[in-house]
Amino acid sequence: MPATPVYIICSPRPQVGKTLLARLLSEFLLLKNGNVAAFDVNLKEPSLLDYLPKVTETADVIDTYGKMQLMDRVILDDGVAKVIDLGFHAFDEFFKMTDEIGLLKEAARRHVAPQILFVADTDRASARAHEMLRGQIPRMNLITVDNEYVVRGELPPAMEGGRLFRLPALPGFLKTYIDRLNFSFTGYLRQEKDSSTELHQWTRRNYIALRELELSLILQRS
Known about the structure:
- By secondary structure, the chain is of the alpha/beta class.
- It is built from 10 helices and 7 strands.
- Strand 2 (37-41), helix 2 and strand 3 form a beta-alpha-beta unit.
């Protein structure tokens, strides 16, 4: 990688699949690179820490000390990809902080490449938050996530432009299966011999899409 990637997965809304995407991305990076540093900024359980305790630590942005601790760990060009699962409660405070400290300029100076993955919804809060991010985050750093389980249909027109990541919906019974705390996407791929199962294909498709996302980041900065 030409720069250390930092993936910030966010939404102002709860229960939109944010932690699911953080799990997928963290497991993909762990499989591909052998390491990943994940940060869980959430109030409710289960959260990323519950699913991936070996690579995840808790963080908060409530006070200045917590913010600085998180930024010191994240804006670090150590070659280890970072994943932040940003709870909806911390959305406004986090991006207020990143704007105040000039996160993107500081990241570029330190050879770090932040990618903001905004998980879309059709409500007003999501529309306002997406508009705010478009004004604050350069187009190449902002990715709108279309979780088909949440957005049942077309994305709002204002969210269709720019970079998109589509997360296909799973049937309800499979969603219940993957929500178990001891479930591992990579473990399932390795153990399930039948590659034609819906979950096997869904996981592989998402891993391939995440690989393409990573390659696009490399191409942008080469």
